[in-house]
Specification:
By secondary structure, this protein is α/β, with parallel strands linked by helices. Helix content is about 40%, strand content about 20%. The chain binds adenosine-5'-diphosphate.
Length: about 400
Amino acid sequence: MLIFVLNCGSSSVKYQLIHTETEESLARGSVDRIGMSSAQLSILRSDGYKAKFEIEILDHTQAIEQILNYLQHKEHGVIKDKSEVEAVGHRVVHGGQQITESVLIDDKVLTKIRQCIELAPLHNPHNLRGINAAMQNLPGIPQVAVFDTAFHSSIPPKAFLYALPYVFYLRDEIRRYGFHGTSHFYVARRAEKLCGGDSASLKIITAHLGNGCSITAVKGGKSIDTSMGLTPLEGLVMGTRCGDIDPSIILQIMGREGLTLNEANSLLNKHSGLQGLSGTSSDVRDLLEKGGRDDERVKLAIDVYCYRMTKYIGAYAAALGGLDALVFTAGVGENSPLMRGKICEGLEFMGIELDEEANQKAVGKEMLISRKDGRVKVFAIPTNEELVIARDTEKIVNESRKKG
Ligand code: ADP
């Protein structure tokens, strides 16, 4: 089945065209700077052909229309006609408590996604915009929503409740939801395969380290705890997000600086993390390349980032009652031997011992990077959220066709 996978942000659309029979991605790319006269559309085909175009794209509907135009283009494209697309799979960030698995999108589902806007005001509105835009461009084609929160719906109350008055949970559904679920699910399943044996008893920690970062404890294939919370702000130090802080800090800063809610939100989400600490960049590669050696603030920022991660590995090993495998994924996790090494420093006592040579070699590829005799297997595994979305979309479309 040919699936058009979409991930829609505020001013961007990422896409992939995936054939589920071969699990091959025929083409992938993005539209950036939607709303500007010089939006950028990119396409990368499976044969390695790449192209970039600068065109006016004012909204998500135009973005998807243009992507489909280029996918059908004689010179740049990979399909003859958009009618070859059999289904669309959407990444949707928040499914709340009501949606705990991927679903075929209908009016009821749209209402539920809309209801979750309050829980994910920075994400769900754009995901909805993407769904509407896809419906306009591909009328009558089934659309499936795959949620970032779904994999974490197995987290038990002792891990998802905050120690606040219980009424906020009951009335406002304030609790830990967790994000990056599709990525944690994919790499956990890969790690189970690579470990062999009985996956029902495996204890795995998965670390998704991209611009956003989160870490998940997976027991017997299920997420039992994860570092992001009600929103993607909690937990690890990220590119521009602070992760865990004493909640009273923000009250103090708001009082002292006279910040509005929006300003405080922006401070924590866009100006903190590596960016805030280093004062230089939110991008790990930038920090390592440009300032890592001499700049004290850059070094400190990286130390805080890695220490937080190391601490969570210890905490989640305790939550799991042991550890069989640790997985690194996403931009930093897949590509940076230096950061992986720094994070694992001092964890030999719990059986985490990297093989220096393997660690250096594992850049953008799936590899075991721990010593063969180490108690814990450590892997670098490139994530593939789009493939999970395509697989789920195919499954759900097939099921709905059977039901007739
Ligand atoms: P997103 O969360 O936006 O999908 P990615 O998963 O692509 O982002 O991760 C982006 C992060 O990965 C950036 O901080 C980038 O610097 C980092 N990164 C990518 N390649 C490397 C590398 N070779 N070494 C260190 N960091 C890298």
